[in-house]
Amino acid sequence: MNAIQPAINHHIPTTRRLSRRVRAQQDIIFEAYRSSKGSNPATRLAQSLTHMLHLQIESIHTQKTITQSNLSSILEDKSNTPISSPKEDISNKWEEIHGSNDWDTLLDPLHPCLRRELIKYGEFAQATYDAFDFDPYSEYCGSCRYNRNKLFEKLGLTRHGYNVTKYIYATSQIDLPQWLEKSQVAETWSTHSNWMGFVGVSDDEESKRIGRRDIVVSWRGTVSASEWYEDFQRNLERFGHGDAKVEEGFLSIYTTKFKSSRYNKSSASEQVMKEIDRLINLYKKRGEQQVSLTITGHSLGGALALLNAYEAAATFVNLPVSVISFAAPRVGNSDFKDELHELGVKTLRVVVKQDVVPWTPGMVFNEKLQSFDEITKGLEWVYTHAGVELRLDARSSPYLKKGLQLQGHHMLETYLHLLDGFQSSKLPFREDAIRDIALVNKECDLLINELRIPPRWYQVANKGLLQNDHGRWVKPKRDPQHIPSPTTDSVFL
């Protein structure tokens, strides 16, 4: 396997990069904690945590602004360029791109081939939002708006060369209202299940380009950042065969099933694992030696992706398993992180510095408090991030508004915009970034006003209403091929 050469001068990888000022301040805090022998331990901990939270919320520096004089030329230039770059053959380096060396030397600077692959998987994760029926007045609220055979065609993702083979549905035995969308009308397609994503697989052409048959699993997340602290601060529950523990809300969504349910007679876990097993055996019988599993998700979807990766790696020996997550929260304890590593799961977490969701759960009690063992060792809710981190900064883009905006900084389209423009921690936002800037404002209001892109513009025309033959505006019936059905949401290749 040929080593991937960085596109520009190598700097310290993002995951090892931490502000020296922050490190120094943390060292001072920890030393103060250790040396304060006379004070009450709880008081010392509270004081130190206060300082640490101040360090977490760094001030927003002034960003470069775009003047009206050069704005028109920027927009005109970009409007006449393709939305994706030409595909490159990565068949001889796919293992490095998927973390065989923990992405060492590939993140800072960000290798162009890795950037393209990350955006590809990010767009698969974004598909779970774009195709999701959020309309509370729709009888199909909580379902996918499209048949699995039409999903990528409807969303303009056929260029990636993957086919959807299975839809995933989930429910929960714990009341988590911010993830479960329900219709407000009396008759509905399902009372306690939601579409949570899909399983897909690369076609022959794409498999040749990327060097193996790639099974992809994409998990839907939540788009609201403000409710995370309230909804996902629960107990840690045992998961797997060791000492790993994970947040019980995530685990409930992943493993709950109801015999009376049309869509969750089997759990999301059972659905996805059965499909992965089927695809592995299918291509093994065809004589294909190289098969990989890539799991992606944003927000809650990133948490479910880690649970899925843990289970898959423990079940399918010698299957390369990698996770590409965006805005993922902490999922479990340090044993969960260690067991993921022992199982060989490669995890790359893409994080925006200003997004609060990656701070949760465990905004206070987390891996940064290892020096407080005498107090935290008895607690069951100390959370730890797993994997390698690629950190992006919203201030780097000249197209985004200044200041902290919880919703905008959490949106996946914001992540993909920043990822497309990221070169390295030493270089500015790249001018030749090709991803459509307007996508940032699909579900938020983060683009500078000078761009004149309306906020929250992504929606069904006229919010789904159509004018009938009598001139009345009515809610149309969904095309039969797009009506959810537990018997037609999978396909045998």
Automatic annotation (TrEMBL):
One annotated GO molecular function: phospholipase A1 activity
Record-linked InterPro entries: AB_hydrolase_fold (IPR029058), Fungal_lipase-type (IPR002921)
Keyword annotations: Chloroplast, Hydrolase, Lipid degradation, Lipid metabolism, Plastid, Transit peptide
Fungal lipase-type domain mapped to chain residues: 216-363
Keyword check for Zinc: no
CDD domains the UniProt entry points to: Lipase_3
A Pfam match: Lipase_3
Keyword Lipid metabolism tagged: yes
Biased composition (Polar residues): 484-493
Record's subcellular location: Plastid, Chloroplast
The protein's name: Phospholipase A1-Igamma1, chloroplastic
